[in-house]
Specification:
heterodimer, A: 112 residues, mainly beta, 6-stranded mixed beta sheet, 5-stranded antiparallel beta sheet, 11 strands, 0% helix, globular, B: 115 residues, 7-stranded mixed beta sheet
Chain lengths: 112, 115
Amino acid sequence: SQQGEEDPQALSIQEGENATMNCSYKTSINNLQWYRQNSGRGLVHLILIRSNEREKHSGRLRVTLDTSKKSSSLLITASRAADTASYFCATRRNNAGNMLTFGGGTRLMVKP
Amino acid sequence: EPEVTQTPSHQVTQMGQEVILRCVPISNHLYFYWYRQILGQKVEFLVSFYNNEISEKSEIFDDQFSVERPDGSNFTLKIRSTKLEDSAMYFCASSERISGANVLTFGAGSRLTVL
């Protein structure tokens, strides 16, 4: 079965630095999404990139998608302490209904 | 901003008991989902629901589980005869679109502790 797998599993950086998280998946997809989860809370949608797109920006977020390598990256620029959270990629497979499959997440800690 | 509401926020139950987790999805959304997250682990898909029936379910969603939309607003997950390994955070989500991009809006979760 398809799974998104993020790396690193944990990342600790200083405020102001950039954070890069990667996601790999196994089958062809319709789109890939990134979600954020604060500790003990629900997931919040951040950004979606379609399979025919290569890069997308939203504020301090930049997402890339390489379908030939079945991988995506999420870059958070100029990180803030409030960015501390877990970040998950989620994929929607082609011709496989509406479900999203989530990866294991990257735990990001931004130190003030 | 519209949100998905889940109750209870935390439930403690004895092994073997039945549990019902409740969710109120966003009113104009058409797809409803349950996911679970065992502490520190990945978010796992359980089931999706559309047009008053299950549209997809995972291997986790066995006969112990059932979902229902008893009225026009609530969406429930029932877990019969709970086991210790059912202890997890259960998230309800809903999405608007039938096709194309489907962005999920999640509730804050219901933490289930089975003793």
